[in-house]
Amino acid sequence: MSDSRRFVPYVIGALVIFGLLIAGLFTGSRRLAEPPPEKPSPRPEVETVLEVRPKKLFEFPGNWDQVPKFTTTLFYPGQTSWEWLIGEKHAGSKETQAGEACQSCHARTEDELGRSLATRGDLEPDPIVGKRAAVNLDVQAAYDDEFLYMRLAWDAQDPGAYHTLWRFDGEDWQNFGGPKPISEGGSPSYEESVSVLLDEFDNVRVAPDSKAGFVTGGCFITCHNDMRGMAQGSDGVGKYLPMTRNDDKLKSDDEIRQLLQDGQFLDLWHWRAALSNPVGYGDDGYVLDDRNADTGRVSFSLSKEVPAWMFDEKTLGFKTARLDEMQRNLELFHLIEGKTATTFDSKADFQEGDILPTALVREPEGSAGDILANGSYRDGKWTVVLRRKLDTGNPDDKKFMEGERYNLAFAVHDDFVGGRRHHVSWVYIMGLNREDVQINAVPLMAAQETQPKET
Ligand code: HEC
After folding, report:
1. Which of 84, 89, 94, 105 maximizes ligand 1 atoms within 8 Å of its Cβ, making it the mutation to test the pocket?
2. Model's pTM, two decimal places?
3. Checking CA distances to 311, which of 106, 381, 445, 447 falls within 20 to 30 Å?
4. For ligand 1, atom 39: residue with the closest CA
5. Residue-wise pLDDT tens digits, 356-404
6. Domain range for residue 387?
7. The domain that contains 105 carries what CATH number?
8. Is 56 left (phi over 0), alpha (psi -120 to 50) or beta?
């Protein structure tokens, strides 16, 4: 073999190595020009669930088809306050102050009233485009030896399954979503909710010597010009009762405590699609000097400046949500303490467009946790069943007794709204096993005995 022939394999080898080097250089320089390819974070396929199923911490021990249904029409109230209602601009002011009920003049005009108040005028300086005038709410109630059950159902414009959010913009976490009205280009995200305000029959009045009270003016006696979101709104106070003020000045702590002891407060139940329902509860509060939570621990905590919690990747396979996934699954993306949530890690690897809820949802404790709730959403309708002990033994709750009457009024926060932007009802009368009322809470044993059960 000649010398030159012996070199051929070496030349070929050198060429191959040279070629590899060139290729390496080429891809190497490409790597310099472009950002390094992302490690694809494998997100688990999100199951499509376009409904919300009840948590079922309890079962209703009867058949709702056998419980009478009362349908009330809730209307949009704008900024109608108690001060406006007893002031010169309201044609019915004298009668309202003298204790004539709103319905005696306004009954069955809810649609009309709501239509006028939803558009710009004296009582709505900042309307929401497309706000509907009225919402129908179906109310049913029943009780057994231990509990009162209430079933509330309404058509929702959007499920409102999630509340306010954080969004990662590639560098920072920014507030995202929020209630309507929202600036152009923004996308609203706010939970749906339903509230019940209740009292013993003809108990809370606007003043000791007045005939006007919750029994005649309903929710409107709790609604004032100096509240959040109202005409002269401050940042602080929510609803309150006129009896807690002396010439607009808050009474002393002792006086307020005395009012609570005397039962001069309104019980306020607030079921929330995102902040209470995911753990199977409704919030229990009361209205007195302010809108207060009952003693104990409420069902949620909100993160303020930056996210405080994220999803637990170890158990779920993801640490953040994506908007399209939240639209496809109305149940999965709640941060639930001890289950789906973990402490937020600011150093974790996030992608632009990652979403986190602002709220941690958790089991409530004490008197604040007196109301269990099965809330379900399907085909555009929310159906919420609440259960509360007839007598909780807590001083911040009303007690239910057979044969007695109660005043009730309702509110629905529908279509991404918070604060004053709800629809509200007139005040109604509920009785436990009474025929002379609008909402008859039926005893469950009797209902089952007198009517044959469906087979
Ligand atoms: C004595 C009859 C009477 C009573 C009681 C009464 N109103 Fe009125 N109210 C009127 C009349 C009359 C008007 C003017 C015509 C209209 O808008 O219906 C009016 C107007 C209003 C308006 C303004 C509607 C608009 O389009 O601007 C609101 C809101 C309202 N009432 C709410 C209430 C509420 C809430 C109560 C109970 C706390 C109440 N009213 C009690 C007679 C009454």
Report:
1. 105
2. 0.89
3. 381
4. 102
5. 999 999 999 999 999 999 999 999 999 999 999 999 999 999 999 999 9
6. 64-156+192-293+372-450
7. 2.60.40.1190
8. left
